[in-house]
Amino acid sequence: MRNVRALQAIRKNREAIKAKGLNLLKVLQSEITHELSSPCFQNNPTGSPGDFKLEWDAPNSQDTVLQKKCSTGEEVAVSALLGPPGPPEYIGGTYPRVVNMKVCIKKPGLSSLLQFDCKVTNRSYSGPEFNICSANFLRSTSSIGRRYYTAPSFSEVNPQLQEAFREYLETKGIGESLMNFLLVHMHKKEENQYVNWLQKLQETVSTGE
Fold first, then answer.
1. pTM of the entire structure?
2. What confidence category does residue 105 fall into, taking pLDDT thresholds of 50, 70 and 90?
């Protein structure tokens, strides 16, 4: 009974629904034209990830994964995900969104990992930089049952140790070149996904689905 009433209502208001659909279609076309004619990030130089190689970067995924192997045999993996807008002092920069970055480092012969949670930001006057939010030791599954010390909040760690951690990551290739690459690449990726979403929505509306 409800389905019959719904069909009757649709038939009765078909012209109004059609008019609203055409209005939505015009708005979508205008938005797509605007995005394609004045892209925010597409013309920006992408930069280089340095020694890192892209291991995962599916067009429809939100994350990107890069990996490298150091001359010392250490394996370094970086995963990046576009986060929320940064603090007010970053909004005026070229890339207002924060890039959330995880850095995992594995020593040869060991199954345990060092993991650093970082945020990549951009200031219009000083360029890209990364800040460490936490440092963790991830034990292997074979070490379950052993006790490990839980580190304090990274902000409570001795400032000299914080700086030493930062320098350590820089020696593994976590520097300005990679920061530039991630900021541009992740913002471009989101922009492309937004345009693709608009185009699919336009196709759906234009076919009346």
1. 0.77
2. very high
